[in-house]
Amino acid sequence: MKYDLVIRNGQIVDGTGNPSYKGDVAVQGDTVAALGKVAEEGNREIDAAGAAVTPGFVDLHTHLDAQIGWDPSLTPACWHGVTTVLMGNCGVTFAPVRSGDKEFLAEMMESVEDIPREAILSGLPWDWNSYGEYLDSIEKMRPVINMVGLVGHAAARFYVMGERAVDEQPTAEEIQQIADLVGESVKGGAAGFSTNRIEAHRLPDGRCMPGTFATDEELVAISRAAGNHGGMLQSVINSGKDRLPGEMNLMRKQLEAAGTRLLFSAPWETGENGMSAYQPDIEDMQKSGLSIWGTTQPRPAAFLSGLKTFILFGVRLKDAVTWRALRNLPVEERLAAIQDGDFRSRLIEEAKRMEPSDSIFQTLGAPGYSLPPARTFWMGNGEQPEYPAGEDNSLGGLARAAGEHPGETWLRLMLESDGEGLFHVRFVNQDMSVLPDYMRANWIVPGVGDAGAHISMISDVGWASFLLSYWHRERGEYSLEEAIHMLTAKQAKVLDLKDRGTLQVGLKADINVIDIDRVGELHPKRVYDFPQGAPRLLQRAVGYRNTIVNGQVILENDELTGERSGRVLRNSGGELS
Q1: What is the residue-wise DSSP string for 295-360?
Q2: Which of 269, 468, 511, 536 could share a disulfide with 548, CB 3.0–4.6 Å?
């Protein structure tokens, strides 16, 4: 017989963590049909000599709920080896929705996740009310990669309570209605339920999003309903050491009620004796048989500052007339503006009157501050960004070395890079030294790339490529087998995804062929490919010879082929299919 596809002579890294081996992979239809030495021919053959052959990667934290409407390729996730994405995180989704409430959900997504409202409203068909109908709609869009969705707390709460969902607590009857609605959403195909407790995530009018201050009673009732239909839980907890005990206790209550899995965003927090602050509670929950998982960035998460982003050196000073003028210029005109000596001198004088902030959030939200020099790092002019840059490459360090003000340094590097350069303004996982051991924890998975969101100021979507290029290839912190396991089977376990995540005969053929010596992220670039011509930051990758989804080659030599073989994977009594 002939197979549909045979991948030959590769180093097979099957995702389990077991030793890799040289061999072939045969695919029939959408399924792995044979592994090892394959004598039979394929209708198509791929020579994987010198490359690793791995399962496709799973990305557990995306916000591609809107982008699928106009970009079925789901870029840039598809360029970084990702074959399955989980959307609907952080409590913000577009279903369930009453017909008159779509503007509210679109505006909330814009405010919380930086996805333009008009792109959402014009780029999606909005031909649904229930979550199951939303999945039906995106299935018709024929995504390039697999999609799994969570139902969001804010949407469900607003569906039941209307405007009262923002500022009021539900009655006992309304709690039951929200729980029933979430249960129906999971029964209709949602993989589970997501909620968001971060007070900084706000609506356009400045109020916190629905569900931010939900009571334990409400969240436990909803979690129980999701668990009754085999759904998982996802949470963005209210971080900070003083709040952590209460948040961990709440997640325990949710898990005990739901009898399912819970994934929460877990940026590094230092606890006693240098361990993570979460560890004692996690160990206690695991001893009780609870399935608790955390996800964290494998490098510092950061805002991007440059002539082509929302964030300049400083924009909030009351008398910073020149910086405001620069920001108000079309992006394409900013480089020419700073090339003018008089204009640049005025920028520098204004910069010298600004106070350096300790936090990028202070810079964005208060007048009179500039970028935090010690947390702002030059990403370099090479092919790939210098994410692990040390203090010498910080804005403060570069300014000291040059004997100039940080504002002068910022402007000089913009000129030297022809306006393309970017600074990385770190705000999460700033100390990279703790990350290797932290990510080895049996409850941590790397991720939180936020694909589809924060499109004007953050680009962390290449996290998987970074883990392979930096932590495996450059630093040797993880063997290839360990690194691939963290990107595949370990992620799939969080979803309880039984037919993907490893290369095994009989499982789905989601596969990567990767040049490990070359794989990596490229610099983020500003493009204008969203509806209404809205811009976004887009980050490509190198080193992916092939990506295969459900047996079809969707990417070859870092370029999409046009195949659209992804599927919407729906929950059915706890099984995703």
Answers
A1: EE-SS-EEEEESTTSSB-S----TT-HHHHHHHHS-HHHHHHHHHSHHHHHHHHHHHHTSEEPS-H
A2: 511
pLDDT, residue 320, reads 84
Q: What is the pLDDT of residue 465?
A: 98
User: Which H helix or E strand runs over 279?
Assistant: helix 279-287
Strand partners, 149: 87
Q: Which residue reads 């000291």 in tokens?
A: 400
- pLDDT score at 6: 98
257: CB partners within 8 A, 6+ apart: 220, 221, 223, 224, 227
- State residue 122 phi and psi, 5-degree precision: -90, -20
Distance CA 73, CA 64 (A): 11
Q: Give Cα 88 to chain centroid, integer Å.
A: 11
Give 189's Cβ-side CA count (13 Å radius).
Answer: 22
The answer to whether 236 touches 90, Cβ cutoff 8 Å, is yes
Tokens of 447: 């991720």
* Beta strand segments in 423-535, E: 423-428, 444-446, 511-514, 520-521, 525-527
How far is the C-alpha of 531 from the C-alpha of 146, rounded, in Å? 23
Helix count and strand count (H, E) for the chain: 19, 28
Successive 10-residue mean pLDDT values, the chain, 577 residues:
96 98 98 98 98 99 98 98 98 97 98 96 98 98 98 98 98 98 98 96 96 98 98 92 93 98 97 94 98 98 95 78 93 98 96 80 64 94 93 96 97 97 95 97 98 96 98 98 98 97 98 98 96 95 98 98 98 90
Nearest CA among 546, 552, 479, 548 for reference residue 515: 546
Token readout for 230 is 């085999």
Q: What angle, 0 to 180 degrees and rounded to 10, lies between the N-to-C axes of helices 321-328 and 341-352?
A: 120
pLDDT tens by residue, 546-573: 999 999 999 999 999 999 999 999 999 8
Q: Indicate the Cα dihedral angle 394, 399, 402, 407, nearest 10°.
A: 130
| Residue 574, Ramachandran bin (φ over 0: left; ψ between -120 and 50: alpha; else beta) | left
∠ CA 533-538-539, rounded to 5°: 170
Residue found by looking up tokens 């290029």 in the block: 469
Residues of the chain with CATH 3.20.20.140: 57-299+430-565
Q: What is the total residue count of the chain? A: 577
pLDDT at res. 363 = 60
CA atoms of 39 and 6, how far apart (whole Å): 10
CB atoms within 10 A of CB 6: 23
CATH homologous superfamily of 57-299+430-565: Metal-dependent hydrolases (3.20.20.140)
| pLDDT for residue 240 | 74
Residue 315 is predicted with a pLDDT of 65
First CA to last CA distance, the chain: 28
Say how far apart CA 53 and CA 514 lie, in whole Å: 6
